[in-house]
């Protein structure tokens, strides 16, 4: 294999901006029978659906207004005015 990596090599997961030695993507398990916070299958499905809905709403907003979210809400104009005030 090219690059000197074997085919079963996994990338280390980065938590809080720091790589955790010895913890790879295959070591993180999604618990299937638990309730609560974390990498639980039910939570991951809900977060995935919420992300898709949010993306589609943002896409609809851009198609209807012809502007991006920051420009359409006027926040981008505020940022430009604030940056000029600090010059």
From TrEMBL:
PANTHER family linked: RIESKE (2FE-2S) DOMAIN-CONTAINING PROTEIN (PTHR43456)
Designated name of the protein: Uncharacterized protein
Native species: Quercus lobata (Valley oak)
């Amino acid at each position: 294999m090219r690059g000197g990596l074997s085919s079963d090599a996994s990338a280390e997961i980065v938590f809080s901006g720091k790589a955790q030695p010895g913890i790879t993507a295959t070591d993180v398990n999604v618990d299937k029978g638990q309730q609560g916070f974390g990498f639980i299958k039910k939570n991951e499905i809900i977060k995935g659906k919420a992300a898709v809905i949010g993306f589609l709403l943002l896409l609809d907003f851009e198609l209807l207004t012809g502007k991006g979210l920051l420009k359409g809400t006027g926040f981008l104009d505020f940022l430009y005015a604030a940056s000029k005030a600090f010059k």
